Amino acid sequence: MTAAVGQGGGFPPVALFDLDGTLLDSAPDMVATANRMLVARGQGPVDAEMLRKHVSKGARAMVSVLFPDAEGEARDALVAEFLAVYREELGRHSRLFDGIEQMLAALEAAGSRWGIVTNKAEYLARDVVAGLGWQERCAVLVGGDTYAERKPHPLPLLEAARTLGADPADCVYVGDDERDVLAAKGAGMPSIAVLWGYRLDGEDPLTWRADRVAELPHELVAPAAWPRR
Known about the structure:
By secondary structure, the chain is of the alpha/beta class. It is 37% helix and 12% strand. The strands form two sheets. The protein has a six-stranded parallel beta sheet with strand order 5-4-1-6-7-8, sandwiched between helices. It has a two-stranded antiparallel sheet with strand order 2-3. Helix 3 crosses helix 4 (72-89).
């Protein structure tokens, strides 16, 4: 017997997810990328735990950590290099967080659809989805450059819901960054803030005022863990 879907029934009709730090532990790929850039410049390896905290902030933020003195065009060039090297490292070291596959399977068994809305460039996100074999399972994929705005603007979430023919209020957005919660609020979409992702020191997800907070992916296998409309 499958769990019910919809109002008051447990799993939402549509679950939308951030990618890095929410579904995928991609920090090892980022660390490998950073180390290749540093070694090429005769520098030692990056502090992996330090860089991990910045992953959800994107390539520009990580480059700023790695090369704090770079500005303007020099920093832009480093960002482009970071993305090029990262594409070569993509999927070589990353893995799904424990419990993610079980959660997705539970959603699918209940008849829910799921998709990804990320600030990662769409071409990179598509590479990730292909590498995971999710092309047929992921109902919608929105990257940070798919539309004119990116999170925390609500447009990417609204467009994902529109693509699926779903009312935003019937979707739930799940992410590990405050921008995810802000985007969901702007879209009129319930949200779950997850605690297993990437956060800077001092960031407190409990202050983001998400509809729910999840400590571990396994919690989201249970329909009762999901906010209802």
